[in-house]
Amino acid sequence: MIGNYNIIYDNGDIELFKTPTDSKFNSFFESVTVWNRLYRKEFLNKYKIKFESIFQGEDRLFLAKLYLHNPKINVISDNIYNWMRHENETQKTLTHINDESNFNGQLYCMQKFKSLLENKISVKDRDLLIEHLQYSCIYLNEILKTTCKEKCDIKSFEEFILSLKFDENIELYKKIFGKEWNNEK
């Protein structure tokens, strides 16, 4: 079961995240969080689905492994979780700390996410995967803008970008990176 959730900011603003219902893939991966879902323990045990011991992105990889075993899902319209998203420096949410460790960890996770799924899902879902990862580049690029680039794995990021078929979505590339697409990097 997958439900909606509220994002509650430090200033009291509340944003509703509604789980999409247009496709199983989008229901699963539009939000790569594990806390707006219920899981059958037997299913997880049967397929030995566990979290990886990594600093960033463990939710995304856990969900990818789960998805590959074709679980039955039911999307409900209830809000089943409240996420307190802290933005102040003393309580900042881990995924919103812009440093080279977060950048490199998120990049690793996205690369592994892509390699886990891309050859084991339908062509339609593969297109959604690529689109999902293209939009994830917005997040990676925002981290990169505010961190020490010398400690970031820029070469792997450029290779990852090339693998995401931006030549089929050059306007999005320009919007994210502020420059024209060039597939000959």
What would you note in describing this structure?
The protein is of the alpha+beta class and about 180 residues long. It has 2 domains: about 1-95, no CATH class; about 100-185. It has 7 helices and 3 strands, in the order E-E-H-H-H-E-H-H-H-H. It has a 3-stranded mixed sheet, with no helix packed on it. A hairpin with a 4-residue loop joins strand 1 and strand 2 (about 15). Helix 4 packs antiparallel against helix 5 and helix 5 (about 125-145) runs parallel beside helix 7 (about 170-175). The N and C termini lie far apart (about 45 Å). About 20% of the residues are buried.
Characteristics:
alpha+beta, 2 domains, 185 residues, 3 strands, globular, 3-stranded mixed β-sheet, 12% strand
